[in-house]
Every structure is written in structure tokens, then in C-alpha cells.
Amino acid sequence: MAPPPLAKRPARHPGPVQPSRLPHLPRPARPHQLPERRTPRAHPPAPAREEYAALQAARAEQHTDAWKDRYKIRAGVEGTISQGVQRCGLRRSRYRGLAKTSLQHQVTGAAINLARIDAHLTETPRASTRTSPFARLRPAESELSGAN
Fold first, then answer.
1. What is the pLDDT at residue 48?
2. pTM, to two decimals
3. Residues 6+ away with beta carbon under 8 Å from 100
4. Measured in Å, how far apart are the chain's first and last C-alpha atoms?
């Protein structure tokens, strides 16, 4: 039994556009169709002083050494998760069920550890941060200093 033929969709532009044969009449004004604005537009309220002070204190704290030491831990964990996602497909599970998925996560963790051990033993350098196409347009430091 053959499958039914696919329905054809109409073309977006069936052909050349023909100018209207009727004379162009002026369009009537449409004030009755526009909503009437009775109140001025509301601006979002400024943050409360307590919120602003807390935000400024949090931003100032980010420049302390203690905060940077705490953030290093988070950066390391994010790096591990990123490596697991990119190298081992950690976002998707191959299996259904908690037991098999848990086993897959444990094996993935072991694989990441083995990859890191291999990189350490073979002295493979870590990848540097990718340079964006816009940043690549910036001239080299030697050109900026005038040393040619």
C-alpha cells in the first residue's frame, strides 16, 4: 500500500504583484480604533535604599581575597561539569531509571578522572580561553607600542 501523496502548500509569492486596477482612495483616519491613553506611562520604581546598599556591598565584597578564594571552588566545579558535558555527554542519560542513570554518572566521573590523570602524566597543557572574532581584530601589542 503506497503512502498518501503529500499536500502541497501554497507558495508564499505565487507570481508577480499586479497593481490594483481601482483608483487609490485616501484611507479614512482611524482615531476610533486606537486605544485612548488616560494615564502617563509608568516608570519602574527605583530600588529601595536597603536593596541598593545590599547590592553595592555585594559588589564591593567581590573584590576581596576571601571572596575570590571561595569563588575558585565554584569555578573548579563548573569546569568539571563543563568537561563532563562536553566530553562525556553528561546532560543526557542513555538509560531510564535511577539505578542505571546513577551508574552512568559514576562511570562518567571515573572517565573524567582518567582523562585528567592522562593529561597530567603526558603533560598536556590546558586549553586556553577562546578568543572571540571581535577580539581577534585588535592589533598585537607590538603594533600598539610602535616597535616594528
1. 86
2. 0.47
3. 93, 94
4. 76
Q: Which 3-state string (H, E, C) describes 28-80?
A: CCCCCCCCCCCCCCCCCCCCCHHHHHHHHHHHHHCCCHHHHHHHHHHHHHHHH
31 in the Ramachandran plot: left (φ > 0), alpha (ψ -120 to 50) or beta? alpha
Domains of the chain by residue range: 49-125
- Do residues 102 and 79 lie in contact, with contact meaning Cβ atoms separated by under 8 Å? no
> pLDDT per residue over 93-131, tens digit each?
888 999 999 999 999 999 999 999 999 999 988 877 788
Cα 71 from Cα 77, distance rounded (Å)? 10
C-alpha cell at 137: 581584530
Q: Give the residue carrying C-alpha cell 479614512.
A: 28
Task: Say how many CA atoms lie within 13 Å of 6 toward its Cβ.
Answer: 3
